[in-house]
Amino acid sequence: MSFGGASNALGHGIGVVLVSPKGDHYPLTARLNFFCTNNIAEYEACIMGLRAAIERKIKILEVRGDSALVIFQIRGDWEVRDSKLVKYRDLVAELIKEFYEVTFNYFSREENQLADALATLASMFKANRETEIMPIQMSIYETPAHCFSIEEESDGRPWFHDILEYIKNQKYPEQANENDKRTLRRIAIGFVLNGVILYKIGKDQVLLRCVDAVDARKILEEVHEGICGTHASGFTMARQIMRLGYFWLTIETDCIGYARK
User: Fold this and answer.
1) Is 256 helix (H, G, I), strand (E, B) or coil?
2) Could you state, in order of their start, the residue ranges of all structural domains in the chain?
3) Which phi-psi region, left, alpha or beta, contains residue 176 (left: φ > 0; alpha: ψ -120 to 50)?
4) Other beta carbons within 10 Å of 12
5) CATH T-level assignment (fold) for domain 2-124
6) Whole-structure pTM value
7) Nearest to residue 154, comparing CAs of 213, 229, 103?
8) pLDDT-based confidence at 130, cuts 50/70/90?
9) Average pLDDT in the 120-146 region?
10) Which pick of 83, 92, 199, 219 has the fewest CB atoms within 10 Å?
């Protein structure tokens, strides 16, 4: 269990994080609507965490906090000289009797960022009554949001189907009006057909192969997995190619890519 307290111009808040042996995190936070010092806020946070652990029938607990005063006073290393903290120290002594084994360890503020963040959040969130907030769920994203953002074709045709049909057969889509036809002719100027393969003409005259959603996803997966033998990492390549507006992939001497829809 880690705990932290925060007192600032906006108010006072406390935060606790219970961590299971499997690594599951259970955050707790509360706002203190009464005047208190930083040390009192730290004691309040520690007590809230101990009570939460008791409610969950935890019997072996390691308590960690970045308040040296609270940790060392609870351990008995330091004397409690502030009269306002005596009752807090006595309450903690009663609560720890509920555990088979409990230890208190001091660690740096840098290692207690989550509990401190919860305490700061509670101190800044003004509420006149108890407010219920849904639990915070934190996901981990390994790649930027734009990666793997590939739209599936709703009609089962690739995004470049109309362009391909016009260049290959001079055929317009059904129900296309004159404005649609004019737009399609203008777009088609930037593409070239080589056999059955359609290419987008890049700004540097490099031909970028147009692929459907299935092939595009496969290419992206190979880029980010680094199995293509490229000289740059997948992330570096993706960052560079997104600035150009196209995805490209260098495999030996071939340049393969797909144009954005």
Assistant:
1) strand
2) 2-124, 161-259
3) beta
4) 23
5) Nucleotidyltransferase; domain 5 (3.30.420)
6) 0.54
7) 213
8) low
9) 68
10) 83
